[in-house]
C-alpha cells in the first residue's frame, strides 16, 4: 500500500553501505521510521528531500507496518540554516526534542506546525533566536503534556507571585515557598510572568507576536530551557553544542 504524506526529517541514520533510515515527523501519522534505498549513492534523487531538517512530501510503500520511501520531493530545505552554525545547531536541538516527545505512528497535529514556525522564524523572520528557542521550549513542553499552571501561586492564590517552580510547573510566592522543599525555583517579575502566560496560552499563529525587554528575555530564556529539561529529565547534545558557540 502506498501512503503520501508531508514530513520534516528529524534524524538520518545509517542502515547499510547504500541505504539509510529516516525519522520523520509527519502531518497525518506522527513520528515514522522509514527506509530510503540508495540514499548514500552518488547523485541520489532522494538526497535533498531526505536530509536533516528538510520538509518534504514523501510517497511511502507500507508493508506490515514497515515503510520504504518510493518518491520524495522537497518543499522547504531551510537553506540559510545550513550556512549558520548557531542556527543549524539550534534547529537540530529542536528536532531532537521533538523526536523525544512524539510517539511512533501516533498523530501529533500541533507539533509539526510548531517546528516549522520556529524554523521559519530562525531563517525568514527578524526574531531574536533566543526568543525562538524559548517559545519552542515552552510550547513543546505544553504539547508533551507538561503545560504549567500559571494562574496564581499554588499555595495562597496570589495572581502575581515571584517564583516559578521548574519541577512542579507551578507559581509560588517567595514567602510561601519557604514552607516547602519541593522543586527547583527560579525568580520572575511581573513582565516575565505575563510573557510566560502569553507564550503558553496564546493562539499558535501568534506565538511571536510579543515584545519584551532584555532583562525579561534573559529570565524567560532561563526558565524555558530549565523547565523543558527538568520535565523531560534529560539533556540534548545539540543544545550543548549550541551553547559552546555562544561563549
Description of the molecule:
The protein is of the alpha+beta class. It folds into two domains: 2-76, OB fold (Dihydrolipoamide Acetyltransferase, E2P), CATH 2.40.50.140; 86-246, de novo design (two linked rop proteins). It is 37% helix and 25% strand. The protein contains seven helices and nine strands, in the order E-E-E-E-E-H-H-H-E-E-E-H-E-H-H-H. A five-stranded mixed beta barrel has the order 1-2-3-5-4. Strands 6-8-7-9 form a four-stranded mixed sheet. The protein is elongated, with a radius of gyration of 20 Å.
Topology:
Elements: E1 2-14, E2 20-26, E3 30-36, E4 55-63, E5 66-76, H1 85-101, H2 111-124, H3 129-143, E6 149-153, E7 163-165, E8 170-172, H4 174-177, E9 185-187, H5 190-201, H6 214-232, H7 237-246
Parallel strand pairs: 3-5, 6-8
Antiparallel strand pairs: 1-2, 1-4, 2-3, 4-5, 7-8, 7-9
Helix pairs in contact: 1-2, 1-3, 1-7, 2-3, 3-6, 5-6
Q: What is the approximate shape?
A: elongated
Class computed from helices, strands and strand pairing: alpha+beta
Mean pLDDT rating: 95
Tell me the number of strands: 9
CATH architecture call of the largest domain: Up-down Bundle
CATH superfamily of the largest domain: Recombination protein O, C-terminal domain
Within the CATH hierarchy, at the fold level, what is the topology of the largest domain? de novo design (two linked rop proteins)
Distance between the termini: 50 Å
Number of helical runs?
7
Main sheet: strands, sense, barrel: 5 strands, mixed, barrel
Residues in β-strands, percent = 15-25%
- In total, the number of domains comes to 2
Computed CA radius of gyration, to the nearest angstrom: 20 Å
Helix fraction? 25-40%
Strand arrangement across the biggest beta sheet: 1-2-3-5-4
Amino acid at each position: 500500500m502506498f501512503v503520501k504524506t508531508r514530513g520534516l526529517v528529524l534524524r538520518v541514520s545509517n542502515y547499510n553501505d547504500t541505504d539509510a533510515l529516516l525519522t520523520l515527523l509527519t502531518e497525518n501519522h506522527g513520528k515514522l521510521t522509514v527506509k530510503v534505498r540508495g540514499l548514500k549513492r552518488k547523485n541520489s534523487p532522494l538526497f535533498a528531500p531526505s536530509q536533516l531538517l528538510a520538509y518534504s512530501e514523501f510517497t511511502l510503500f507500507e508493508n506490515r507496518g514497515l515503510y520504504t520511501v518510493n518518491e520524495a520531493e522537497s518543499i522547504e530545505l531551510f537553506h540559510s540554516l545550513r550556512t549558520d552554525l548557531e542556527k543549524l545547531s539550534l534547529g537540530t536541538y529542536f528536532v531532537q526534542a521533538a523526536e523525544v516527545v512524539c510517539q511512533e505512528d501516533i498523530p501529533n497535529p500541533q507539533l509539526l506546525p510548531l517546528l516549522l514556525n520556529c524554523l521559519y522564524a530562525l531563517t525568514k523572520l527578524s526574531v531574536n533566536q533566543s526568543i525562538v528557542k524559548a517559545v519552542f521550549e515552552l510550547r513543546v513542553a505544553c504539547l508533551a503534556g507538561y503545560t504549567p499552571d500559571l494562574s496564581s501561586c499554588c499555595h495562597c492564590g496570589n495572581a502575581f507571585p515571584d517564583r516559578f517552580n521548574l519541577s512542579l510547573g507551578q507559581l509560588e510566592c517567595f514567602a510561601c515557598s519557604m514552607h516547602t522543599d519541593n522543586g527547583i525555583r527560579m525568580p520572575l517579575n511581573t513582565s516575565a510572568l505575563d510573557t510566560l502566560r502569553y507564550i503558553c496560552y496564546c493562539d499558535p499563529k501568534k506565538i511571536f507576536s510579543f515584545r519584551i525587554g532584555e532583562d525579561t528575555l534573559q529570565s524567560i530564556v532561563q526558565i524555558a530551557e530549565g523547565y523543558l529539561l527538568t520535565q523531560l529529565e534529560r539533556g540534548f547534545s545539540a543544545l550543548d553544542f549550541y551553547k559552546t558557540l555562544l561563549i
